[in-house]
Every structure is written in C-alpha cells, then in structure tokens.
Write a structure and sequence with these properties.
The chain is mainly β. The chain has no helices and 11 strands. Strands 2, 4, 5, 6, 9, 10 and 11 form a 7-stranded mixed beta sheet that branches.
Amino acid sequence: VQLQASGGGLVQPGGSPRLSCTAASTFSLDYYAIGWFRQAPEKEREGVSCISVRDGATYYADSVKGRFTISRDNAKNTVYLQMNSLKPEDTAVYYCATDGTDFPCEVIAEGDHAMNYWGQGTLVTVSS
C-alpha cells in the first residue's frame, strides 16, 4: 500500500492550505480509517486528525481542534486535511497513514506505532 501526502509549502501565519492524501488506484481508501500525523523538528511524530469509515467519525488533537477539518472524497480516492488559521507551531512534516483497517480514530492519540502504511510526508512551513 502506498500513500502519498501533498499540498504542503511555505504558508504565512493565518494561512489555509489543504493537504491531500491519495493512494494508488489499486488501493481504495474507502475502506480504511486514515490518520494525519505531523513531526516538527526535534519532536516526536504526533497524531493530528483521523477519519473513520464506519460512521464517518473524526478525531482532532486539541492543538488543532477548531482549526483543521478532515474529510474524504471517495470518488477521488483522497482524504483531505483543511488547515486554517495556521500558526508557526504548526510547522512540521505532515504524513497520512493507516493500519489497513477501519481502526478507531482515538488510537492516534497514543502515537504512530499502530500505523503500517505511510505516505512520504509533505512539509508545511508557517512563517512570515
């Protein structure tokens, strides 16, 4: 399974980029919960957001709640992370990941150890 995250770049504080997580056409994201993680310089990778399949439940870390929105477009085989009101502390490499199941999204609060499939990451730099 190959995932690919894209949409990062240099963003001014307060900016609103949208990250995308896509997969090869032979792997449908429709059936799997997808998590977004980030790793800032000299920090551990942390779970940011997640969306499940079964009931469309979503999860957000407290640090991004109210600013980030996760969604999926099954027709495009893509999961999005809309990021609003960005702050310099949001600067990080952002990854999408799954364990290959419709896992309960809350597990990403415990870290990244349960994820088996990762995208290569996309760097978001928030700076003026």
